[in-house]
Amino acid sequence: MSLSLQMSRAAAAALLLLLLQQEPDLKIFPADNPWNWDISRHAVHPLSDKYVASIGADRNLHPDFGTQYGIPYVIVPGKQKRVPVEFEYADESDRGPYPVPDDAPIEGGPDSDGDRHILVIDRDNRVLYELFNAWKTKEGWKAGSGAIFKLDSNDLRPDGWTSADAAGLPIFPGLVRYDEVARGAINHALRFTCRKTQRAYLWPARHYASSDKSEDLPPMGLRFRLKASVDISKFPKRCQVILAALRKHGMIVADNGSDWFVSGALDKRWNDDELNALKKLKGRDFEAILTVDEKGRPIPPKPR
Q1: Which of 7, 60, 229, 266 could make an SS bond with 70 (beta carbons 3.0 to 4.6 A apart)?
Q2: pTM
């Protein structure tokens, strides 16, 4: 094979990889999915002040993403090879197989001792695959848990099941992603963590990860929004996009972790100094809202 042919094939392969990684305007779940709700008119939860205090009214909001850290993801074609995954929590994991590439990006990198999430989007079949604590093996992969979500469906996990996240929710729909911020709008709720949570969960969450029954602590699935009184006009433009989403769609308690840490995708295009402006906000700038009634049934958005 000639050197020029080798180079042209290498260039074509590189171009294909680039096209696959470019994020289209991904439609994540139907418009009426809870992740996509406009919750700006929902009532404030009667325990909002206690929830905020338990997480930290004076603690700063923290963007848990940027150029050096965050949760990566990979978009693959429908023909991507499916591989087996061995699960530690097999009784609460979707069996698979999963279309995980050999070089799939792992949260924290290949040597990480953290959560080691892997997120894969099958763009042609519109299916989301997520793994927690994933490790490459000779046969395929092993992981703590795994979940599969059809992006055209509102189906939830079985009641009581975890996912790749403690709340039994998908991770990808709750990430701040660079491409959507660059387009000027985030049309979904965000994912965030707090150190202490309640031994309970609210719809659409399906799982808890705590032994503490204190009603002052937030349950998994509890939703917060940025207060309407907070002036966001002086923040950098990209930060304003994120804050507008926190006001319109809110953020959901999805896992135990550092307080007020909002999840996003690792991306070299972020401006870390710009994102740090989000740390000016504190817990007291947010309020918990009622998204379920006294019987745990969802309270959908009010028609405009």
Answers
A1: 266
A2: 0.91
